[in-house]
Amino acid sequence: MKYKSILPLTFIFAIACSEADKQAELSQLTAERDEINAKIETLRDEIAAERGEMLPSVIKYVELEKVSPQLFQHFVRIQGTVTSDNNIMVPAQASGLVKRIYVKEGEQVRKGQLLAELDGAIYERNLEELKTNLDLARTLFERQERLWKQKIGSEVQYLQAKTNKQSLENRLASVEEQYRLTKFIAPISGTVDQIKLKEGEATAAGLGGIRVVQLSNLKIEAMLSEKNIDNVHVGDSVTVELPMLEKTFASTIRSVSQVIDPKNRTFPIEISVPDRFKMIKPNMLTVLTINDYHNSEAITIPLRVLQNTGTEHFIFTAESDSKANIYIVKKRTIKAGLYNSTVIEILDGLQPGENVVTVGFQDLTHGQQVALSRTQENKQ
Q1: What's the farthest any 2 CA atoms get from each other in the chain?
Q2: Which class would CATH give 60-69+299-379?
Q3: pLDDT higher than 90, residue 39
Q4: Where in the chain are the domains?
Q5: What is the structure's pLDDT at 4?
Q6: What is the model's pLDDT at position 51?
Q7: Contact 215, 230 (CB under 8 A)
Q8: Phi, psi dihedrals of residue 164, rounded to the nearest 5°
Q9: Cβ proximity of 251 and 271 under 8 Å
Q10: CB neighbour list of residue 123: distance below 8 Å, 6 or more residues apart
């Protein structure tokens, strides 16, 4: 039993000694590394001093970016709505009871197809009576016309027969038109989107009846601020986002109005919707990203380096000193233009080839000496 208790204690003691040895070795190596790094810095300073390149005792390290012309694009994001020119509510053109509905919501229909009809029994009876009377009037007119040509009978009889026939023809045409108004006819080919009628219920002339939508000819309508009226043109590319569907597609502007709405100082534009996107429906909300400005030879800087005093915008540039790795900071007042999420265009105050301080620009002063950071030195 004693041997059993001594063995685990011996094992634990051995492990503890091993960990202590490793910790001591790590501490020793760390100290040696720090000593070597210190010697490296000392040698660098001695070499720099021998060359007359000794840095000041207190200096700020920065990173620079050389300015060069490049493509700059500005985008505007606005909300749009999917619409259709062929989104038609077929109204009731007469008052009466709904006799029958021939279609269902979601059904495909063709132009001229009968969708529903009102009770037109009274017109049907009138039509039958008028057609019978008209047949008789035509027969009498034809006989009277033959007699008149043979110089038999009076002119009054001939004219009465002719007038009676024409009157019945006009009355028949009028009743046929009234009867036609009891029909709901599809004005376009498309899909039945909504039915507001119920069989047996009364409706009145002018009230909505059946909506027919043609989904193959959709568009997106949006309103842009008047300041963009000269920057947006037919054919410009647009990125369309559909938040509800989590879909994005590219399209083009197909129409740009040249009339400003005096109420909100905007003008409408229209975006094409490709036919292949069958999931897009009228009245869906969209987010449009439109490229309203670009410059292929723009002078740009990172947006984050731009500073301002409230009355002016400024940045810091750096000019190389005679000593290696030493730069003199210059405060530069600039004229800024448009910007996007990363860069801003500089319209005046900065030239290609100049160095802009992009890292370490905080708290710099005009004329201050700076040096390149080790990170940028290693990249060079």
Answers
A1: 157
A2: mainly beta
A3: no
A4: 60-69+299-379, 76-85+217-293, 88-213
A5: 45
A6: 59
A7: no
A8: -60, -45
A9: yes
A10: 175, 178, 179, 182
Q: Whole-model pTM above 0.85?
A: no
pLDDT at 325: 74
**pLDDT(127) > 50:** yes
Q: Give the pLDDT band of residue 330 (cuts 50, 70, 90).
A: very high
Q: Which fold has domain 88-213?
A: OB fold (Dihydrolipoamide Acetyltransferase, E2P) (2.40.50)
pLDDT of residue 371: 87
Listed in sequence order, the residues at least 6 apart from 19 whose beta carbon sits closer than 8 Å to its beta carbon are: none
CATH superfamily label, 76-85+217-293: Efflux pump adaptor protein, beta barrel domain (2.40.30.170)
Q: Please provide the distance, in angstroms rounded to a whole number, between the alpha carbons at the two ends of the chain.
A: 71
User: Reading across the β-sheet that carries 87-91, which strands appear in turn?
Assistant: 87-91, 208-213, 190-195, 108-109
pLDDT in tens, 218-246: 899 999 999 988 889 999 999 999 999 99
CB atoms within 10 A of CB 22: 9
Which residue, among 352, 344, 340, 319, has the nearest Cα to 64 in the 3D structure? 319
Q: How far apart are CA 252 and CA 270, in angstroms?
A: 9
CB-based contact 70:300 (threshold 8 Å): yes
Go through the chain and tell me how many residues it has.
Answer: 380
Around Cβ 278, how many Cβ atoms within 10 Å? Answer: 8
**SS3 (DSSP) at 368:** coil
pLDDT at site 102: 95
Average the pLDDT over each of 43-47, 194-198, 295-299 and give the range with the smallest value. Answer: 43-47
Beta-carbon count within 10 A of 281 CB: 14
Q: Give the β-pairing of 369-372 and 60-66.
A: parallel
Residue type, 253: I
Cα gap 258→275, rounded to integer Å: 27
Mean pLDDT of the chain: 86
Q: Is 50 exceeded by the pLDDT of residue 24?
A: yes
